[in-house]
Amino acid sequence: MKNEVVIYLAHYDHLGTDGLGGVFNGADDNASGTVALLEIAEAFMMEKKNPGRSIGILWVSAEEIGLYGSQYFADHPLVARENIAAAINLDMVGRTKTKEDEASTRSGLTIQGGDSVKVIGGLQSKVLMEINESTLAESGLVGNYKYNNLTDPNRYFFRSDHISFARKDIPVLFYSTGTHRDYHMVGDVEESLDYEKFLKMTRFCYKVGLNVAQYSGSIKVDNPMSKW
Ligand SMILES: [Zn+2]
After folding, report:
1. Is 37 a residue whose pLDDT tops 90?
2. Domain coverage including residue 114
3. ipTM of predicted assembly, 2 dp
4. pLDDT of residue 116
5. Distances from the Cα of 100 to the Cα of 16, 69, 97, 103, 210, angstroms
6. Residue 7 C-alpha to ligand 1 middle, in angstroms?
7. Cα 49 to averaged position of ligand 1 atoms, centre (Å)
8. Three-class secondary structure of residue 118 per DSSP
9. Ligand 1 centroid vs 64 CA: distance in angstroms?
10. What's the domain count of the chain?
11. CA 14 / ligand 1 centre spacing (Å)
């Protein structure tokens, strides 16, 4: 078990500038996931007890132009692929649904209100899905699985870095508070983050990885994506 690694990942690239002087700050997409990983790393460093499996923290680039960073890592992993017990992706974990989101005319927005979390993944491994569900319950969060399928027209299952790992039959979980009215616009700024939700999300993601790392059985892949 100690040879196995639970990998957390988040992309740290965004969209640059709009050519008119506007900066795409990407506070939610994905500075939120990027700094959540720093906090999670620090929390693991402070754990007195060895969790069993190792923890890997991976920041990837070139997500926005085609998931290239995660694809490169999945093609050239630093640890043997069979030793990657699970990959947990954080992409946009810092906002909550507001009245402005409700009034927005943009289509396909998935921003979650209250204690709801958009969950994608868990389909490859019953054990991983169970750990996800029990950790949501212990964290006071509610999973929204509406987008967790291959046929959803928004194709969120394919649109972030976890998919690079899933394609290698590594079981994945992807957490997000969802796409909002400022998604991929210059309005994705720090002032629009909901720090209470952001903290709750970060703590929850930490606990999921801890529970996976501590799980005494194997994180069995009973439904590999290569067979879908
Ligand atoms: Zn993103």
Report:
1. yes
2. 5-227
3. 0.90
4. 97
5. 25, 33, 8, 5, 36
6. 18
7. 33
8. strand
9. 7
10. 1
11. 7
